Amino acid sequence: MRKNIVAGNWKMNKTLDEGLQLTSEVVNMVRDEVNSEVQVVLAPPFIHITSVQKLASEQANVLVSAQNCYHEESGAYTGEVSAAMIKSTGAEYVIIGHSERREYFNESDEQLATKVDLALANDLIPIFCCGESLEIRESGSHFDFVTQQVTNSLFHLSEESFNKIVIAYEPIWAIGTGKTASSEQAQEMHASIRAHVANQYRNDVAAHLSILYGGSCKPSNAPELFACADVDGGLIGGASLNARDFVDIAKSF
Ligand code: PGA
């Protein structure tokens, strides 16, 4: 079901104490300031998820996500974390296919499709990330590239499963660079993704899909981005590490 979502991807930041401090600040500010229809999602490192989840459970619209999960169900995979383990902490979301995972850990479209399946099988909502590099944008093939990422990792899903996922469009050239996509660039890509989904499934499946924008989203540009017809919220990196900035973004609808 289409929702407004603001998700904070902490990446590899915050010790446990710092993460809990940030979580309680966010919970208090969300309670007082954010429309209860907006879902605020915190994605801490795996090791903090259980503790963050305990604090977040005080506020119904603050939910917890993992930043990744492994593409096998269980077994001898030292250092990895399964979708079932994430679910058992009370987390409800998992980010899948962030560009940093694709680039530094060589995650392929096929592996990501498996991760999406495992997340859904364990009743987690995948936040599936897609997005092009600067080189691809400059070559003019960015619409095709993103369409292909979505097709390769998501279009094996049944309509019922597809209805449960969230997509995040994150142009790589905008991540952590301070260079945000303009609202026109975000809107046209989000509309293209939605049209592609409508083509594969049905119009109402596309209409019910939440598509988040990510890449240097901050309080100053969030209102313009979130005002776009096909932008349903944001996946926030740097600005999610500060409670005031993050909550101001969540107030930007
Ligand atoms: P950023 O990161 O907001 O720091 O650009 C976004 C992301 O990687 O999800």
The biggest beta sheet is recorded as: 8 strands, parallel, barrel
Bound molecules: 2-phosphoglycolic acid
What value does the average pLDDT take?
97
Task: Please report the first level of CATH classification, the CATH class.
Answer: Alpha Beta
The CATH topology, please? TIM Barrel
Globular, elongated, flat, extended or rod-shaped: what is the shape? globular
Roughly how much helix do the residues carry, as a percent range? 40-55%
Tell me what you see in this structure:
With 253 residues, this protein is α/β, with parallel strands linked by helices. It has a single domain (4-250), classed as Alpha-Beta Barrel (TIM Barrel). 43% of the residues lie in helices and 15% in strands. The protein contains twelve helices and eight strands. An eight-stranded parallel β-barrel has the order 1-2-3-4-5-6-7-8, surrounded by six helices. Strand 3 (62-66), helix 3 and strand 4 form a beta-alpha-beta unit. The model has no long low-confidence stretch (mean pLDDT 97). Bound molecules: 2-phosphoglycolic acid. 2-phosphoglycolic acid binds next to strand 8.
SSE order and pairing:
Layout: E1 5-9, H1 16-33, E2 39-43, H2 49-56, E3 62-66, H3 83-88, E4 93-96, H4 99-104, H5 109-121, E5 125-130, H6 134-139, H7 142-154, H8 159-162, E6 166-169, H9 183-200, H10 203-207, E7 210-214, H11 222-226, E8 233-236, H12 243-250
Parallel strand pairs: 1-2, 1-8, 2-3, 3-4, 4-5, 5-6, 6-7, 7-8
The structure holds 2-phosphoglycolic acid.
